[in-house]
C-alpha cells in the first residue's frame, strides 16, 4: 500500500532559504509536498534583517505560527528552526536579542501551537557561524559561539523533554569543514547548502 503524501511546511531563518531551493528538488515528490514561509525575494534584500521568508527569532516564529493557527492552516510535517537571530548581541544595549529564559518559553509556545497546525513537529538545530569574520567593528551586533552552543542546548533539551523529533543540522554542517564552508559570516557556500538539503531530505525519507 502506498504511503500518504505528506504536506511539508518549513519555517526558519535565512539558512533555510539557502538550503530550501535544493530541498524542494531533493525530496521525494511522491511522498512530500513542499511549502515554506513565503517572501523569498523580500528576505534576500538583506538576510541580516528578518523579513518575508526569513522567519527571524523565536518570538517572530511563534507569532507567525499563531497567525497560521488563526487561519486554520494545516500540514502533516512542520519543520522549524530559530536561534541565530535570538543570539544577536546588541552592542549598544549590551544584551542578547532574546534572553535564554525567553527563548525556552518561546520554544515551548512554538511546540504547543504546532499541535494545532501539524500532525508532527520537527526541530532543525541552529547552524554554526564564523565568529571571527562576523564580529567586526562595523557591525551593530555580534554573535558568539558560546551563545550559539547555549541556545542549541536549550533547544535540544526542550525538544527531548517534549518528544520532538530533531534533525541535527549543526553537527552535520560542522563536520563538512572549517572556515571554507562559509560564504560570509553566517551563510554557506552553494555546495554546502546543497549538502544540507540532501541531509534533511535523507532524514525525511526515513521518517514514519
At the fourth CATH level, what is the homologous superfamily?
Answer: SGNH hydrolase
The counted number of beta strands is 8
What is the number of helices? Answer: 8
- Strand neighbour order, sheet with most strands: 2-1-3-6-8
Q: What gross morphology would you assign?
A: globular
- SSE string, helices as H and strands as E: EHEHHEEEHEHEHEHH
Rg, Cα atoms, Å: 16 Å
Describe this structure in words.
- Helix 3 packs parallel to helix 4 and helix 4 crosses helix 6.
- Helix 1 links the parallel strand 1 and strand 2.
- The strands form 2 sheets. The chain has a 5-stranded parallel beta sheet. A 3-stranded antiparallel beta sheet has the order 5-4-7, with no helix packed on it.
- It is built from 8 helices and 8 strands; from the N terminus they run E-H-E-H-H-E-E-E-H-E-H-E-H-E-H-H.
- With 208 residues, it is an alpha/beta fold.
- The protein has one domain: Rossmann fold, CATH 3.40.50.1110.
- The two termini are 14 Å apart.
Question: What is this structure's SSE topology?
Answer:
Blueprint lengths: L5 E6 L2 H13 L5 E5 L3 H4 L14 H13 L4 E6 L8 E2 L4 E2 L3 H18 E7 L6 H4 L6 E2 L2 H17 L3 E3 L1 H6 L15 H16 L3
Parallel strand pairs: 1-2, 1-3, 3-6, 6-8
Antiparallel strand pairs: 4-5, 4-7
Amino acid at each position: 500500500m502506498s504511503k500518504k503524501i505528506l504536506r511539508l511546511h518549513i519555517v526558519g531563518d535565512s539558512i533555510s532559504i539557502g538550503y530550501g531551493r535544493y530541498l524542494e528538488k531533493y525530496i521525494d515528490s511522491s511522498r512530500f509536498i513542499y511549502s515554506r514561509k513565503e517572501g523569498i525575494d523580500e528576505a534576500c534584500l538583506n538576510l541580516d534583517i528578518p523579513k518575508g521568508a526569513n522567519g527571524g527569532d523565536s518570538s517572530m516564529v511563534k507569532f507567525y505560527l499563531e497567525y497560521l493557527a488563526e487561519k486554520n492552516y494545516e500540514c502533516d510535517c512542520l519543520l522549524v528552526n530559530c536561534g541565530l537571530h535570538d543570539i544577536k548581541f546588541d552592542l549598544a544595549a549590551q544584551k542578547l536579542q532574546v534572553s535564554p529564559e525567553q527563548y525556552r518559553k518561546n520554544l515551548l509556545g512554538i511546540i504547543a501551537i504546532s499541535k494545532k497546525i501539524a500532525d508532527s513537529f520537527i526541530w532543525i538545530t541552529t547552524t554554526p557561524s564564523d565568529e571571527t569574520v562576523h564580529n567586526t567593528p562595523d557591525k551593530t551586533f555580534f554573535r558568539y559561539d558560546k551563545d550559539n552552543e547555549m541556545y542549541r542546548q536549550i533547544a535540544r533539551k526542550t525538544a527531548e523533554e517534549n518528544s520532538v523529533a530533531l534533525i541535527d543540522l549543526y553537527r552535520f554542517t560542522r563536520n563538512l569543514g572549517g572556515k571554507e564552508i562559509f560564504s560570509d559570516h553566517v551563510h554557506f557556500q552553494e555546495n554546502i547548502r546543497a549538502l544540507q538539503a540532501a541531509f534533511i531530505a535523507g532524514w525525511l525519507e526515513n521518517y514514519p
